[in-house]
Structures are given as structure tokens and as C-alpha cells.
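Progress against Task 2.4 (sequence-to-structure conversion) is shown through the following example record, which the project officer requested during the mid-term review.
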Amino acid sequence: MATLRQQLLDLIDKLSPQMEVAFRAAVQDIKSEVVLKEVVGFLERSDIEGAIRALHIDPAAFRPLTEALRTAYSTGGLLTSQNMPRLFDPMGNRVVFRWDVSNQGAEANIRELSSKLITNVAEGTIAAARETIVSGYAQGAGAAKIALDLVGRKSAVTGKREGGVLGLNGPQAELVERTRINLLSGEPALMTKYLALKTRDKRLDGAVKRAIAAGKSLDAATLDKVLMRLRDNNLRLRGATVARTETVAAVLSAKHEAFQQALSKSNRDASLVTRKWRSAGDGRVRHTHSVLNAQEVRGMDLPFQSPSGAMMRYPGDTSLGAGAGEIINCRCDVEYNFDFAEAYARSRGR
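C-alpha cells generated for the chain above:
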């Protein structure tokens, strides 16, 4: 039978795509509700905040993400409970433990995870929109051009908007704008940077290379294609990253809560628990988590401390201030061990 760790990894692999679909559907819903002429009107009056309001980046649009997150949390806790070691109370009586997703602690965790997820996604999207508007003004772009860069152009095939910045975060929007500047520069050293981007559309490499060889700026029509594909590919990347990171956080938060519930049901003290950090053990593990590997702490609340200074009770935990650099696409786990044999001996006065 597969270990609990492998079962949880399989669960994360299964559920992450569902959250990714929810993310992209939310972004498409936002784009479909935008009235372009309203955005253009605000942009013509240089009203940046008005233009952003007209995009209706409503946190409610991202609510489907919370349903995917709740599913991951509930299923992760249930799977953990089904693999729980046999439990006994201090008197040696067997304890029957069942996962309770409606438990006060579990509900509080779900609310916190959901709130952070929606806030981060919505604020990141607004930051990307603001970056695009400010950069557009700086380059002398017209209001209609900026508006289309925000929401995308309608596809003649699907009728849906493609190539817009909505859904990206601030750094991704900055990347797109830096790429625009570089490809318009006519400077080979700057233009060549595009060819190193992992999210570029390689089918357009030939046109870029010809412009570099000629020492000329990329023509406007090709530049629009390049940037549209760059935005779309970064949107897919963000969707996958958000989905994987948040699914991991939900599943491992539920695992932590399940062990906490089991302790409470068994009337055991948290000092009887040891937790050990386990990395994925390959060359893709970030350095800080390689250092954390096999680090052991006692109790349920004492955090692991990364060499960066970040503190986490389990991988993906941001409740103690860990930043994106410690949690994005993390593949680590925590091993929980109950020292119930020692507790039982003490309860008998041995």
C-alpha cells in the first residue's frame, strides 16, 4: 500500500488541475464582463483608478477557487485520518477518530486559506492592470490600445478575448512591458533577451531573430503577436502555479489539522508529537528546503525555521509570514510521529 505521503502527492496531482480550471474560468469571466468603451473613456481622461474599477476585478469572481480549495482541504484531511496510526487514550482505551471538516479549527483554516488566496489573486491582477496602464501612457499608447492590452483581443475562432494582461500578476506584467521595450529598442543585446524567456512562443523566434540580425526594431504587427502570446503563456503559468501552490497548502494544512484533532480526541498532550521535515530529495528542491530536510521539532505549534528566516509549521504554511519564495510549487512534506508508547507507560506509573 502506498505511504500517506505518496497518497497525498497523488491527491495534489489530481486536484491541482481542477483549481487551475477554476482560475482560468474566473479570469475569462472578468474579461467577458468588461465593457471596453467604459475602460477607454476613463483612460482618455487619464483616470487610472476609474479604468481599473471599470475592469470589475471583483474578488467574488474568484470564489470558484475557494470551492476547489475546500475540496482539497476536506479530501486531504479525510485521507490523513484513514492512515492515522492506532490511537489510545491515557488509560489505554482505543480511540475511534474520524475527520471532522466542520470542526471549528478546520473551518477557521479554510476561511483563512480562502481569504488569502482570493486577496492575493485579486490584488496581483489589479497590480498587473495598473502596471500596463502606466507603461502604456509612458510609451504614448492610445487609450484604445491600452484597453485592448488589458482585456485582450477577441478571437475570430472562439469569440473569447485572448492576449490580455488580466489574470497576470505585477511581476508578469512588468516582464511583458520590459519585453516590449527591448524588442522596440533595435539593440541586439536587449532584443536577444526575449529568446531566453521560457514563456515565449517559439514559433515567433524566426521573426525576432531576423529583426536582431538586421539591427532593427520588431515591426508593430509581429510585436503585438509576440506580446499576446507572452501574456497568454504567462497566464497559463500563473494558473498552474496558483493551483499547485494552493492545493499543496490546503492538503498539508488539513493533514496538520487532522493530527491536531486526533490528539484532542485521544486526550493527548502535543508534547508527545514530533514532526520531521521531508524534502522531495531531488535536484529541484530549493536550497533552503534541502537544509530543512530531516529537521525535527516537537509539538504541533513549534515551527520549522528556514535558513532564510521564514517560519512554517508545514510546507505551504504562510500563517507565520513565510513569503512566496518558500512556498511556490513546494513539494516537501512533514512526517508526524506520536510517542504514545511512552505516554502509555507514564500513565501506568512505569
